[in-house]
What does this fold into?
Amino acid sequence: MQNVNWIALIVFALLFGFITWLGFAAAHWRRGDLNSLSEWGLGGRRFGTLITWFLVGGDLYTAYTFIAVPALAFGAGAVAFFAIPYTILIYPILLVVFPRLWSVCHKHAYITAADFVIGRFGNRWLALAVAVTGIVATMPYIALQLVGLEVVIGGLGLGGDGWLGEVSLIIAFIILAAFTYSSGLRAPAAIAIVKDLLIYITAFAACIVIPIQVGGFGKIFAAIPAQKLILAVPHGQNTGAYSSYATLALGSALALFLYPHSITGILSASSRNAVRRNAALLPAYSFMLGLLTLLGLMAFALRIDKLPEFADGFKVFKSNFAVPALLLHTFPSWFVGVAFAAIGIGALVPAAIMSIAAANLFTRNIYREFFHREASDKQESQMAKWMSLIVKFGALIFILLLPSQYAIQLQLLGGIWIIQTLPAVLLGAYTRWLNPWAQLVGWAAGIATGTWMAAAMNFNGTFPLQLAGWTFPGYSALYSLALNLIVAVVLTPLFNQVSKPPEDQTAPADYQA
Amino acid sequence: MDNKKRKPGSNWWYLLLLVLFVGTLWVPFFNSVEPTWAGIPFFYWYQMLMVFVGAGITAIVYFATE
It folds into this structure.
C-alpha cells in the first residue's frame, strides 16, 4: 500500500478541511452561552425537525456501521441483513416511548437518562448504574469509529507499515477534539449535514453504477453461493438462524436508543413533535443502510478480495476492506475521495456526539452528584469539556495500541450491558411500578448473565438457549434482559415491604407536555 | 398510562406498529429466493420494502395520534 492515491487524498483532505472550519464556526450557530452544560452538551435544545434528522441520522448510522455491516455481508452473506429489520424497528420505539422522555426531560431540565432516573425513582445508585453503564458501553463504540477511519485512510494508500496512517488518524482526532471542545453538540450537528449528504450520494451512486457495470442485479446475486444467499433453514429441534436473526434485530433495536449518544441526540430536539416526525423521516437512512449492505454482497459477488491491487488492504483490514475496495474498483479517484470522506467524516460525527454524551453523564451523574453538588454552570461545562477530551484520547490510545479485535468484543459486551438499562429508562417513562433496588439487582443479574453468555460463546453474540429439549439460538442481550426483568419483577413486592421508594419528582402530565 | 389528552380510540393505531414487528421478525415468511424482482431475491427486496412500509405506518400513527 505504498501507492498513495493522490487525487482521492486531495479531495478527501479538502472535504476534511471544510468540515474542520464548519466544526469551529458552529460555535456561533444559534448562539448560546457555551459555558452552560445544556448549551454545550445539548446544543441548547434548539434543533428543529430537519437538523434533528441530520444529527440523529449522522449519530446512529456511523462509519463503523458503513464498514462493518457490509463487511459482515461480504463474509457471512444474508445474516448481515439483520441490520434492516433492526433499523426498521427502532422507529416505532422512537415514536411511542421517546416523546414521553423528551417531554419529561424538557420540563425538568434533565440532560441525561440518569438525571431522569434520579427524578423518577429517587435512587442515586440506580442512576449511577445507568450512568456508568452508559459511559462504559460508549467507549468501545468511539474506538470503533476510529477503526472505520483507519480503513479509509488505508484505502487512500496512507496505511501499511509506515507511520503515515497513524499520523493521519491522530490529526483527524485532534481536529475532532478541538472543535468538540469549542462548539459542543453544535459541531457534529452542522457537520452531520455534510456527512449525510455525502453518504446518500455515495450509496445511491454505488447501487446504480455497479449493477449497470456488471449487467444487472440478477448477475450479482447469481454469483453468490446458495448458503450465503439466504439464511440456512433450521432443522431438528433447533430454531437456528431464524431465532438468531430475529433476536439480533429486536435486541439491537431495543438497545440502540438506550445508548447515551442516541438519547443526547433526541434530547437536543427543540420540540416533542420534532422527535415524533423524525420517527417517520429517519427510515430513509435505513434504506440507505440496506443499499450499503448490498454493496457488501456485491463486493463478494465480484470476488473483490481476489484482485491483486487490494491484497494488501484485505490482509490488514480483512473483510472491513470490502466497501473501500469496491469503491476504489468502481469509481474514478476523485469520487473515491468523496466517498472516503463521507465515511471518514461519518466517523467523526458519532465520535463527537458519543464523547459529549459520555461527558454529560460523567459530569452530571458522577461528578456533580457524588463529588461537587454545588457545581456552577461554568464548572459543569468545563468538566464536561475535559471529560470529552479524555474519553476521545482514551479511545485513540486503545485503537493504536491494541488489536481491533478487543474493541469489537467490547462493543458486543457494550450492547449487552446497555440493554440492561431498559427497565429504568424505557419502562420508567411509563411506570414506576418496579422498585429501584429491585431494578438494581436485576441490572446486575443481567450484566453478569449477558457477559457470561458472550464469553462462553467466545464473543459471538448468539447464545444457544436450551429449553424443554429445544435449542433457541438467540441474542445474549435479549436473554439477559429477560432475566433482568424477571428478577426485578419478582423482587419488587419483596423490597417494597422493606422500604417505600422515595417521591417521584415527575408528574404524569410532564410526559405529555 | 396517562390518556387524558388523547383522542378516544387512538390507541388502536399503535396496534399497527405491532403488525410491523411481526412483519419484520417472522423470518420463515421471507427467507426465500423466489419470487425475485429485478433479479433481487425475495429475502432482500421484501425487507427493503418493509423499510418504506415501516415509515408509512409510523407516519400514519403519527398523524392519527397527534
